[in-house]
Design brief:
By secondary structure, the chain is of the alpha+beta class. Helices cover about 25% and strands about 45% of the residues. The protein has a single domain, classed as 3-Layer(bab) Sandwich (Archease, Possible Chaperone, Chain: A, domain 1). It is built from two helices and eight strands; from the N terminus they run E-E-H-E-H-E-E-E-E-E. The longest helix has 17 residues.
């Protein structure tokens, strides 16, 4: 398994290059980049599992919707995703489907929010295969 991310300079927002051997690894690494952008390392509280599914017309839209859902959990429901436990992405005809199981916890005073992300953007977002890895550049609107 080879998934990773690195932050790059961006004028006003947070930009991150993300790599993964599979689309699932790319999506998981994108969540890890999002998490490291919004919170400091924290002590884990009571862990909870959430499951959900998403449907989109492109893999880019699916990625934006996936991270947006996790961002919504944090900033609207006060629940922090710590880990993607399971993730499956399938394409059927012109529809992309995602099903996931994530682990997280209710936000407490132990969780230090570094940065509020207002939106996950489509700006510069294009998922492509480079050699044997999937690549994208994702921008978080702050």
């Amino acid at each position: 398994m080879s998934a990773n991310y690195k932050f790059i300079d961006h004028t006003a927002d947070i930009a991150c290059e993300v790599l993964g051997d599979t689309l699932e690894e790319l999506f998981t690494a994108s969540v890890e980049a999002w998490r490291s952008s919004v919170v400091e390392e924290t002590k884990y509280g009571e862990r909870e599992i959430k499951k959900f599914g998403l449907t989109a017309s492109s893999k880019e839209e699916l990625l934006v919707d996936f991270i947006s859902e996790i961002n919504y959990y944090l900033f609207t429901r006060n629940w922090l995703c710590n880990l993607v436990l399971e993730l499956e992405i399938k394409q059927k005809n012109n529809t992309w489907n995602l099903s996931t199981k994530i682990e997280g916890m209710p936000v407490s005073q132990d969780v230090e929010i570094k940065q509020e992300i207002k939106a996950i953007t489509f700006h510069l977002l294009n998922i492509e295969k480079r050699e044997n890895q999937y690549y994208t550049l994702i921008v978080f609107d702050i």
